[in-house]
TrEMBL record:
Pathway: Carbohydrate metabolism; glyoxylate cycle; (S)-malate from isocitrate: step 2/2. Residues 7-63 form the Malate synthase N-terminal domain. This is Malate synthase. Keywords: Glyoxylate bypass, Transferase, Tricarboxylic acid cycle. Pfam families: MS_C (PF20659), MS_N (PF20656), MS_TIM-barrel (PF01274). GO terms for cellular component: cytoplasm. It comes from Actinokineospora alba. The lineage of its organism: Bacteria, Bacillati, Actinomycetota, Actinomycetes, Pseudonocardiales. The active site is at R160 (proton acceptor), D439 (proton donor). One of its GO terms (biological process) is tricarboxylic acid cycle. NCBIfam families: malate_syn_A. SUPFAM superfamilies: Malate synthase G (SSF51645).
């Protein structure tokens, strides 16, 4: 028997989720898979250090046969055949209902980057998903306004658990913190796999071996609960630079449990900075706003993703445009709609089968663009993109990115990073800042750019060199808050912190 200790404060209806059988199921996953998770995290460190020394990554020679042979993933279930619009967001009941009613085909129920893992958020999110699976999700605001799922066709729920790197400090198994991903997946699967499709988005994978671990988790979970093998369907976010070199292999490892890949653009940009942060000036990026999806290395990544997916019969899902409308400002809204239409038009033209939005008002725009591209077809798997040829050098052509580092860009990175961390520490992992939807990924870009610019002695458009003193001087202009100290820790520490959410988690 595993010794299970729960350290979180009581949360409304948590007893419906934290049943003895559900906790035993999670403990079983942890017993079988936690050590493998730890080994894979250690392997990440070694691979990153080698890539930084050499200033390169490449496609794996040992898996050439997988890349060159013909095979396809399992066909998608009907609920995931048409994914032209997906809406992302946190799992509080009101936002969940709005997402389910939005007209999107899929709701990405985000237990990861858009969620601060306060115990109340972790538990209330599971309650929301429990009710959504059973068609009984309702919410009444303090002002008395009632919300319920009333769409004729509610969005299909696809859950994003935490990445492999995060633990859950409120669940101790034999005295050890549980793996956050296994808590999120395990509780959701245990309660809902027999009721609704057990569909998942898998974040921040860095290798096909990490995909193999998830595949084994799925197989184990299906077997333990007597669920048909292959019932689980995952979509993997290609949002780390090493994963971009292993797309075929990731699809192959999950071929009985996968439905597609997603171009997780913001985390991908963060990962590239992180991976090559100390590899020399050719990897130094300009202002965040200057790095668009038309940058050569970003085009290479997205086009390779579409080609790889469609060759294997898997869906290629576009990423999230950060622009959001403002119902109080027609000018801001018009600009957001224009930017989103442009972004989604490029993705549809490139062959993506659908894309993400972060606000219900953007669903019609994305749908309009993909309706025009798809017509009556549910997807465009038939567009094989055989015209695409991407090399390792193309994926790493950072120095070809237009733009430069500016004082305005530095100030913006610091401002966004601090504001986001204030929101995160307060319990809100998705924050609207300056009419952009920011989550942990965009905050990671901000602090990583600052770290990279300081270490590489970048000179700004004003002639100022980016130094720790300059960063502290700008931070001193911000209103006093605990977020300033945390931002400084993750942006200026001599030893780069892999994920800002790790030290931030210890502060909540």
């Amino acid at each position: 028997m595993v010794d299970i200790k729960l350290l979180g404060e009581p949360v409304e209806r948590d007893a419906e989720i934290l049943t003895p059988d559900a906790l035993e199921f999670v403990a079983g996953l942890h017993h079988v898979f936690a050590d493998r998770r730890d080994e894979l995290l250690r392997a990440r460190v070694a691979k990153r250090e080698r890539a930084s020394r050499e200033g390169r990554l490449d496609f794996l020679p040992e898996t050439r046969d997988i890349r060159e042979s013909d095979w396809r993933v399992a066909p998608a279930p009907p609920a995931l055949t048409d994914r032209r619009v997906e809406i992302t967001g946190p799992t509080d009941a009101k936002m969940a209902i709005n997402a389910l009613n939005s007209g999107a085909r899929v709701w990405l129920a985000d237990l990861e980057d858009a969620n601060t893992p306060h115990w109340r958020n972790v538990m209330s999110g599971q309650v929301t998903l429990f009710d959504a699976a059973r068609g009984q999700l309702e919410f009444t605001s303090p002002e008395g306004k009632h919300y319920a799922v009333d769409a004729e066709r509610p969005a299909t729920v696809v859950v994003r658990p935490r990445g492999w790197h995060l633990d859950e400090k409120h669940v101790l198994l034999d005295g050890r913190r549980a793996v956050g991903a296994l808590v999120d997946f395990g509780l959701h699967f245990f309660h809902n796999a027999r009721v609704a499709g057990p569909y998942y988005y898998l974040p921040k994978l860095e290798s096909h071996l990490e995909a193999r671990l998830w595949n084994d988790v799925f197989t184990h979970a299906e077997r333990e609960l007597g669920i048909a093998h292959g019932s689980v369907r995952a979509t993997v976010l290609i949002e780390t630079i090493p994963a971009a070199f292993e797309m075929d292999e990731i699809l192959y490892e999950l071929r009985e449990h996968i439905s597609g890949l997603n171009a997780g653009r913001w985390d991908y940009l963060f990962s590239l900075i992180k991976y090559f942060r100390d590899a020399g000036p050719e990897f130094v990026l300009p202002d965040r706003d200057a790095v668009t999806m038309t940058a050569p290395f970003m085009r290479a990544y997205t086009e390779l993703l579409v080609r790889t997916c469609h060759r294997r019969g898997a869906f290629a899902m576009g990423g999230m445009a950060a622009f959001i409308p403002n119902r109080r400002s027609p000018e801001v809204t018009a600009r957001a709609l224009e930017k989103v239409r442009e972004d989604k038009g490029r993705e549809a033209g490139d062959g993506f089968d659908g894309s993400w939005v972060a606000h219900p008002d953007l669903v019609p725009v994305c749908r309009e663009v993909f309706d025009a591209a798809l017509g009556e077809r549910p997807n465009q798997l038939d567009r094989l993109r055989e015209d695409v040829s991407v090399t390792a050098a193309d994926l790493l052509a950072v120095s070809a990115t237009p733009g430069r580092a500016t004082m305005a860009g530095l100030r913006s990175a610091i401002d966004i990073g601090v504001r986001y961390l204030e929101s995160w520490l307060a319990g809100n992992g998705a924050a609207a800042i300056h009419n952009l939807m920011e989550d942990a990924a965009t905050a990671e870009i901000s602090r990583s750019l600052v770290w990279q610019w300081v270490r590489n002695k970048v000179v700004l458009d004003t002639g100022d060199q980016v130094t720790e003193d300059l960063v502290w001087a700008i931070l001193a202009e911000e209103p006093e808050s605990p977020a300033i100290e945390l931002f400084a820790e993750v942006a200026l520490a001599a030893e780069y912190v892999d994920f800002l959410t790790i030290p931030a988690y210890e502060r909540i």
